[in-house]
């Protein structure tokens, strides 16, 4: 009706009076030193995407800082390649990857355990 068309809602949520001032303040708020960048990269290779643990090695950074830094730099740094390259070094040349049991093997193992339990119960009776 005419009353609804006359009343207009103006959303003021998240309004910034001076967005450039906010942008400039944020730029200088948390600058990463070269030393911090090096520690981040080293710890990321050891603990991929465990930002809580990585942040614990950095005095002036918290978890959101580390997450933001990761997503801002992941294309240039190519963290996936770093992790892959260093994963082989940690495991060693002569060690093979430990194979996980397949779903079928797990089911067979469970059936065998149940059979063993049934025979134990029969022997007790």
Automatic annotation (TrEMBL):
Name of the protein this chain belongs to: SANT domain-containing protein
PROSITE patterns in the record: SANT
Listed GO MF terms: nuclear thyroid hormone receptor binding; transcription corepressor activity
Disordered as annotated region, ranges: 85-125
Annotated Gene Ontology cellular component terms: chromatin; nucleoplasm; protein-containing complex
Transmembrane segments: none
Organism: Micrurus carvalhoi
Superkingdom, natural source: Eukaryota
Similarity section: Belongs to the N-CoR nuclear receptor corepressors family.
Gene Ontology process terms (BP): negative regulation of transcription by RNA polymerase II
Domain SANT stretches: 27-78
Feature: compositional bias, Basic and acidic residues: 102-125
């Amino acid at each position: 009706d005419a009353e609804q068309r006359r009343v207009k809602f103006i959303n003021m949520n998240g309004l910034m009076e001076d967005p450039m001032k906010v942008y400039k303040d944020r730029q200088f708020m948390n600058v990463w030193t070269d030393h911090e960048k090096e520690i981040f990269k080293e710890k990321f290779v050891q603990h991929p995407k465990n930002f809580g643990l990585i942040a614990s090695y950095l005095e002036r950074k918290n978890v959101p800082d580390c997450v933001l830094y990761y997503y801002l730099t992941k294309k240039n740094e190519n963290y996936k390649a770093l992790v892959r390259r260093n994963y082989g070094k940690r495991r060693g040349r002569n060690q093979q990857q430990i194979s996980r049991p397949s779903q079928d093997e797990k089911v067979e193992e469970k059936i065998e355990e149940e059979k063993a339990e049934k025979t134990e119960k029969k022997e007790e009776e």
